[in-house]
Amino acid sequence: MSRRGANAGGSEDSRELVAECARIVCEEDVLDYRAAKFKAMQRLGLSPRSALPDNASIQAAVIEYQRIFGGEDYANRLIALRRTAVSAMKLLHEFSPRLVGAAVSGAITAAHRVQIHGFADRPESLDLFLEARGIPFEQDERDYRYPDGREDPVPLARFEAGELGIDVAMFGLDDLRRTPLSPSDGLPMKRLKLAEAEALAAISLDQILGNPQVKEKD
Question: Which residue(s) pair with 124 in the sheet?
Fold first, then answer.
């Protein structure tokens, strides 16, 4: 099986592998696509030498799986994540917040949290901001990969907004013009400004599920 065939979904094995990966991600909350691929290969009895599908194929399959099997529960959670993101971005406006991740693409599961990139001259500015407002948070760190091959650790603050979680990665001010790569497709991450996030949050349940809009009677 060629890698080109696997990525294009041109063989039965590759299509079955992509579908099984999506099922594992959605039903077992495995957020690491690479781990989902190897788990799917074992379950399907495929050779370890088989070409792996690309992450973009898995992401598209996750969205389709959720639309079909997740239904309204999936759509309502996606809407809630996006609306929570907008509220968080308004709160964090002084850090030039950008929305990233699965809430942007729609490839979410029950395990996904809101992902936001913030920017400041000192990363600890966010810690002081949250402490001053009595918002409990946990400190963490996340590695981001860049087009030049570098991988840099970035401080992370994790806090909760009701039943939904929010992760804010704090970059330096210069990083507004230096975008890390998305693990889903290897391209520069989509970083949405507030107005773009608000437009995303306004997308309806029917639009997310691909259902035709019900027209009102005259």
Answer: none
The count of structural domains within the chain is 2
In a domain, 77, yes or no: yes
If asked whether residues 97 and 157 sit together in one domain, one would say: yes
In the numeric block, which tokens belong to residue 202? 């306004």
User: Does 20 lie in the same domain as 101?
Assistant: no
Q: What's the pLDDT score for residue 184? A: 81
**Does 139 fall in a domain?**
yes
In a domain, 212, yes or no: no
pLDDT < 50: residue spans in the chain: 1-10, 213-218
pLDDT at 123: 86
Q: Per DSSP, what are the bridge partners of residue 114? A: 166
Instruction: Decide: 69 and 62 in contact? Cβ < 8 Å.
Output: no
- Sheet with 138-145, edge to edge strand ranges: 98-100, 114-119, 164-171, 151-161, 138-145
- The whole-number pLDDT of residue 77 equals 97
Residue 26's Cβ-count burial label (10 Å; 0-12, 13-18, 19+) is buried
